[in-house]
Amino acid sequence: MNQRNVIGEGLIEDLAETLQIPQSRYEAADRSYRSVADWLDRPASVFADVDLEVYTQGSFRLGTAIRPLSGDEHYDLDVVCEFDISKADRTQAQLHADLGKELKLYAARHGMEEPSPWDRCWTLNYADEAQFHMDVLPSVPDGQRQRLIRETASLSLDFVEDAISITDTQHHNYRRLSDDWPASNPNGYAAWFLARMRPVFESRRKAMAIQARADVADIPTYRVRTPLQSAIQILKRHRDMRFVDEPEGRPSSIVITTLAAHAYGQESTIAGALLSILDRMDAYVECRSGEWWIANPSDPRENFADAWNDDPSKQVAFDDWLQTARADFAAASRLGDATEFVDVLAPRIGRDLVEAAVARRRGVQRSTVTFAARANRAMRRVLDAPHRRPPTWPIYREGSVDIVTATAMRDGFRPHVFSSGEPIARGSELRFDARTEVKRPFEVFWQIVNTGEAARVARDLRGGFDAGDVTPGVLSRYEGAEYPGTHSIECLIVKDGLLVARSGSFLVTIV
């Protein structure tokens, strides 16, 4: 491995550290859900005579929670309350209402606002200084019934003993005594996830115990960080940024987490795990009878890709995100210059966060020219646009290409040659002419990046690469000036599968 690889991978390690939730957040969450458990188990509780297990689920349980994109440091804590009661004695509605009653009393006792009811759970809204809210899900054990169902269908029995039934106001048996409740298995999923990283997890936990001169059991699981968990955190941040303006296409966390855990090969470094996961994760997406399938490892009847079958554009969005992530992190892992590292990842990680990661590493060569000095605010808006896709061709700078003229044309007006960033009237027809010194044959591509509310609402942010015509003389591209805001166009030359020249972004300001 050469020095550039070592530095690039080291910067990815630092990036993972900047995404970590402070340990104090985990400790506060731990105290809070245990406080709720004690309240439900007190003598005056409606559940006083019921065996009860309270535990977390979701990203806090798996150790894959990340700082919120907004930066407001408010987190979601998902908690399961498993009551050892019979479904022959209470309906879903009764259990849901009983838990709500106790949580209302808990909130009043602690000076909190009244909890909010939802289809499946209740939300405890903590004071702002707590910086999180808790979704509390009522449930009952259901391992025996789920075993019979799976055996009848000849399905895997893995983790079936951990299965539970949950409440859902939309379920057809919500208000009726019935054995048929919605099923879930958060403990089973967590056990599967831990098994996927167990060798590395146990090795690191043991090392931490030795360093602290403590028993392994005394090291809380949330203090142990594995490359799988860190890689998932990076991927979730990348996903959040990529779809900040197109939330309808955002791949779900459970899809990313499940595919990443399947693809993890016990790599010992974060960069190694990240690149390996990106390379293999789509291999665990199945196609069954023409439908996309990502099976829940703890319940083979549940398909995490259901939404893809209901809306095929979601699968297209996932594939687009995966290709973009592969290109971003492959490039970042190769870089030894901190400024280039920041510029590569800023669009889909966030410039401030990537710069904070770079600041952690000493001895990395950093450019003395700041980004602010290299690009004005308008250029930054375009270069950091999350939908601006990275080139996927290997880079080999053989020649140059420049956008030599940009012309705006409107009916009733003379054609106007304009410069980068110069305001252009909406409704104009635009022509861009480029010249290159690269010898034929080659391919030409144009990257158009739109920004602004109008383009977002029209779902026309673009950001990909459009093939252009290769004709004698200049290379020309026609575009319309439809959306107010700052946009860009860039010309790229590809020869023998290599990116040999790019013009740099030409700003188009439409007013």
Automatic annotation (TrEMBL):
It catalyses: GTP + ATP = 3',3'-cGAMP + 2 diphosphate. Pfam families: AGS_C, DncV-like_NTFase. The lineage of its organism: Bacteria, Pseudomonadati, Pseudomonadota, Alphaproteobacteria, Sphingomonadales. InterPro entries: AGS_C, DncV-like_NTFase, NT_2-5OAS_ClassI-CCAase. This is Cyclic GMP-AMP synthase. Residues 54-136 form the Cyclic GMP-AMP synthase DncV-like nucleotidyltransferase domain. Residues 386-510 form the Adenylyl/Guanylyl and SMODS C-terminal sensor domain. Keywords: Antiviral defense, ATP-binding, Magnesium, Metal-binding, Nucleotide metabolism, Nucleotide-binding, Nucleotidyltransferase, Transferase.
